[in-house]
Amino acid sequence: MSNIRFEQIEGKSLGFYTLVAGLGILVLAALGSVYYMEHHGHFVTGMSNRIVWGVPHVFALFLIVAASGALNVASISSVFNKKLYKPLSRLSGLVALSLLAGGLMVLVLDLGRPDRLIVAMTEYNFKSIFAWNIILYNGFFVVVAVYLWMMFERRMNKFSHTAGLVAFSWRLILTTGTGSIFGFLVARQAYDAVIMAPMFIIMSFAFGLAFFILILMASYQWTNRPLGDVVVNRLSNLLGVFVAAVMYFVAVYHLGNLYLAENTGVENFILFDGGIYTKLFWYGQIILGGLIPMALIYHPATKGNRSMLGLASVLIIIGGFIQLYVIIIGGQAYPMALFPGKEILEGYGGVAQYSASLPEISLGIGGIALAIIAVTFLVKFLAFLPESLADDVADPHYKG
Amino acid sequence: MSKTLNRRDFIKTTSATTIGVATIVSGITLTTFANANKMPVTNEKRWGMLIDTNKLTEADIDGMVSACQQEQGWGSELHSTGNQKPGWIKKLKVRDKATGKISNLALMCQHCEQPPCVDVCPTNASMKRKDGIVLVDRHLCIGCRYCMMACPYDARSFVHETLSNQKEHMPRGKGTVEACTMCVHKVDKGEAPACVASVNSDAVIFGDLYDASSKINQTLKTIQSAQIRADLNLNTGVRYSGI
């Protein structure tokens, strides 16, 4: 393996500016939507007192979960000392920070009082998972920024293993915190399961890597830099394992819930008779986001084909988004068991209706656009990407 | 004689004025507090309510809801639709699956001893007073709605639109969360909550759960009562009999 040379992208082509302009418009549309929602109040959205968290939260949590997962590539290099991943570490850190920024933008701008963000930063209730998450998210920026510095600065390279270890531990705690937002909610039968924390961690592995692969392939394709099969195939295999692991956790979570009589109502709702949520679960989350990507990654006919890997990554992202939709919206749509053993005839109950409004969707898409804009700009100004990831450069065991 | 103001003089004058104003303002604030709360809230009391569903009629419950609306000024929102409308207190009709018995009851914030809403609130906006009343501080609430996710009683509402003409004692506002306050502004003056006062019979009893001489304490000792979702071990301040 020869020395890896990192270099900024030129970023002067028409394509570059078109991409930035297009994403910029999406971010502006999101800000416009925020103004509209905050000015009128949340009655202009599909959210209500029953569906308290809507599509903005699906986008936000998806991006936050994916962010911590995108850092894995760097962790595999620094913490587990796998040389093949080393040239990818800087980009991994960048994608992680950018996705988190996008997710937090959506989360914060959907607050009823986003103008009181300063309150959230100064008043802490340490019993609240949310308060912990505020600290964990802010800390993630600092930890990963320091980690990137250790990687960029030659004199600091010797600390990158330690910084990587800290960042890896931090991200595991962070995703545990994100999963626990739901895992500790005793009131709702769809949540209240400690398994949600590790499930969110494994979801982050899959969604984050899918994002990373897409950004890696796109940036090498668009800048005409060589990207060898060794790197791509290794990432592809890893992605397949992660998707399988997500499906395992989903199976355990639902089987565990089905076993408990108090949760059979909501389980039957999601798995069998929940209308749109059942369809989304089976067709979207399981088939589109799980089985098809695994087939594309492992089937001999499509294995090693980059377009197919790209397709698999896109499907994993869509499937992951659907998974969070089913968890967040589906979990709220099913009524809480206020009176176990009794049937509520009037006043509460029934499946709550929800249809996302355009401003909510626009805010969510703005979060993704912000993340991609951040990556696009920063790879232009700092040397995040190796000049070449051809097999003879990237593969430590290359025999030419 | 003309005198130009140099920087030192300017600082002196401004500082003196600021200190003067600050002293007066803090004096006013302290006086106001002292007037409003002659007796500090302590944990020697625990305010609670007992609702007897066998005695409570549907008309009683409708009366409780409108008394609450009138007292706290909610329910006339113009734009909120369906589940977006606030519901500080609502009428529920439940049927026992085994016996088929139908009960009507009023459901509001249960003022838990261990309130999940207070646990999850990131900014301490959701809080419990020492006397057991659970409230939202409207100045700290950032509108994240995590408390609404955590409440097992569907008791909290989010203000979905701009409001005007709020009651002086109840600063409701767009983008924050609200719920039954057990009419804390009346309780602190020694009065009963508006919903309790609206019921003519003794179907709803309000009082200090700890006070052995109070009616609510004595009744709870003699009759069988229940807490909603007692399995969660939240030790609610609102109790029910007949369900």
Cα-to-Cα separation, first versus last residue of chain A: 10 Å
Number of helical regions of chain B: 7
The CATH architecture of chain A is Up-down Bundle
Run of helices and strands of chain A: EHHHHHHHHHHHHEHEH
| Main beta sheet strand tally, sense and closure of chain B | 3 strands, mixed
Structural class of chain B: alpha+beta
**Could you say which structural class the secondary elements and strand pairing of chain A correspond to?**
mainly alpha
Q: Please compute the radius of gyration of chain A using only Cα atoms.
A: 22 Å
* Mean pLDDT metric of chain B: 90
Instruction: Provide the CATH superfamily of chain A.
Output: Formate dehydrogenase/DMSO reductase domain
Fraction of residues in H or I helices of chain B? 25-40%
| Residues in helices of chain A, as a percent range | 55-70%
Shape of chain A: globular
Greatest interface (CB-CB under 8 A), with counts per chain: A-B, 51 and 59 residues
Runs of chain A in which pLDDT lies below 50 for 5 or more consecutive residues are none
